[in-house]
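Lab notebook: predicted structure, single chain.

Context: the supervisor wants predicted structures on file for every construct in the current expression panel, including those that have not yet been purified. This is the next one on the list. No modifications to the sequence; it matches the entry in the shared construct table.
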Amino acid sequence: MPTLASLSLAEPLLWLLCLASLLVGMSKGGLPGIGMLAVPILSLLISPVLAAVLLLPIYILSDVVGVWLYRREYSADNLKILIPAGIAGVLVGWATAAHVSDQVVSFLIGVLGVSFCLSRWMRRADTIVARPVELPRGLFWGTLSGFTSFVSHAGAPPYQIFMLPQQLPKMVFAGTTTILFACINLAKVVPYSALHPYSGSTLWLSAALVPIAAIGTVAGKSFVQRLSEKWFFLGVQIVLFLVSLKLVSDGLLIWLS
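Prediction complete. Output recorded below exactly as produced.
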């Protein structure tokens, strides 16, 4: 693994690392789904596994900034359900890591995400009623979110399928997202370290990129604050739909190859 000092400004990997870190930070600032682009971007030059391992410390450290920014804007009722469920999902993912195909999981999550968006868009706006916080649904989607976050870094779609029907205020939605995935990412540290031990150069490189992620986090929250409720949630649904389509297409390509 290269160190930051060994990368020159002319090397594409350095710029991709900076871009990926910025996207991770913006996702922690409340732009759901955008952080999922980080691993595919780095995968252009390094293996997806190495990209995921490299980015996890950046996720965790930028989580600190995101949690502080949203320390007063979140849904406690949702987090009381989703945090334990998400951590349980991570543990299930760790226990089944040797037996579960991340491609199959990603494909199924993609199908769920596409179906959810199409169903919501085809309904008349005046027939959509906000759903309350429901314990059984929260436990199911929270566990699935932690599980898919662990095995394929695709925890956002299950979470959004559960949260979007509640029609929460945008800042509460963004804050709940940031705090939940901060807890899930923290729960992934020991399992990831056991499966893919970190080297000193990897940790130093991640630490050097944290300031870029922190800038992205602050910029992400600023952008969310300026968006109207309508455009924020439309953007969340569009990103969910596109990410889900990508997961479906990746799964189909692997099966057909």
